[in-house]
Amino acid sequence: MKLYLVIPCYNEEAVLPETSKRLREKYDALMGAGKIGADSKIVFVNDGSKDRTWEMICELHRANPVFRGICLSRNKGHQNALMAGLMTVKDECDAAISLDADLQDDINAIDAMVDKYTEGYEVVYGVRSSRKKDTFFKRTTAQGFYKLMKGMGVETVYNHADYRLMSRRALEALSEFDEVNLFLRGIVPLVGFKSTEVTYERGERFAGESKYPLKKMIAFAMEGITSMSIKPIRMIATLGMLVFLASIGVLIYSIVRKIMGDTVEGWAFLAVSIWALGGVQLLAIGVIGEYIGKIYMETKHRPKYIVSEYLTDD
Ligand code: UDP
Ligand code: MG
After folding, report:
1. pLDDT, tens digit (0-9, with 9 covering 90-100), for 96-112
2. 85-91, long-range: CB within 8 Å, 24+ apart, which pairs?
3. Cβ distance 36 to 43 under 8 Å?
4. Could you tell me if the CB of 221 is within 6 A of ligand 1?
5. pLDDT class for 141, splitting at 50, 70, 90?
């Protein structure tokens, strides 16, 4: 089996020497055990780094052909770098595993992923069993992120980031998703095929700094919701409905006050108008939004279906 590792790198000169050493050892062990073919590769994707990352990748490649490098013309972000790597290797490998350059995701899970692939699974999600080693801040924000995704109607695998194995067939299917607003952990479940999970413990970043500061994390969460779900638009329509219903309550209340005779002339009319109009307007925006949501989803040109098996006579 020809296994490719795809590793996006953005300003990762601090971790590359150690990362490449550990990965090479892992590969030697896997090849020695006959689990993966000798023609398997480790592919680094340089995402427009401003430090020596690319020079280091070139050196690694020169010293050992197991290492390969892909250089993007500029920084395009983690998701795009990952996609670039996967799409570049998809026709060469039997399966590809994506992982981060800092090796926070335990590389010993690769063995289990390969086993699952051999058993016939096409997508193997790496799932974090615990986040003990993450900082309190990272842990809470990340968990909040997964909950928010679920609440907003985005189907994701809980505690799974971008550490996963995909078979060539799954990669082929992934390539049919044309969208520019990439949120891979939302798209991969849409790809389907037989999938399973492998759990591991998430470690610390051993060198360098996180390339995902809070600002980028929030942007990423927004991207996830707005690129995968039109639920926020629906919420406007629901809000409109609620405000309109509330206006009926205001109407009854105004009439009661009027009968009791303690109101100013014209007050009831104004109060009810404000609520009723507000509700109708929100509802109307929600209806328009529903159509915009449809247009948005259409423009993504996602595949309507992906055939996984076709039984024929020959
Ligand atoms: N990364 C990238 N482009 C970017 C930002 C990050 O390719 O614009 C890569 C980075 O080099 C790393 C991975 O994405 O391999 C995950 O980043 P990081 O480990 O900093 O994120 P965290 O683990 O803190 O969420
Ligand atoms: Mg990391």
Report:
1. 999 999 988 999 999 99
2. 85/6, 85/7, 85/8, 85/43, 85/45, 86/6, 86/166, 86/171, 86/174, 87/171, 87/175, 88/43, 89/4, 89/6, 89/41, 89/43, 90/168, 90/171, 90/172, 90/175, 91/168
3. no
4. no
5. confident
Identify the CA nearest to 174 among candidates 122, 112, 121.
Answer: 122
- The amino acid occupying position 286 is G
CA–centroid distance, residue 104 to ligand 2 (Å) = 6
What pLDDT score was predicted for residue 23? 95
Query: Each residue of 230-267: pLDDT tens digit?
Result: 888 889 999 999 998 998 998 898 888 888 887 787 87
Q: Is 80 in the pocket of ligand 1 (CB under 6 A)?
A: no
Would the CA dihedral through 142, 146, 147, 151 be positive or negative? Answer: positive
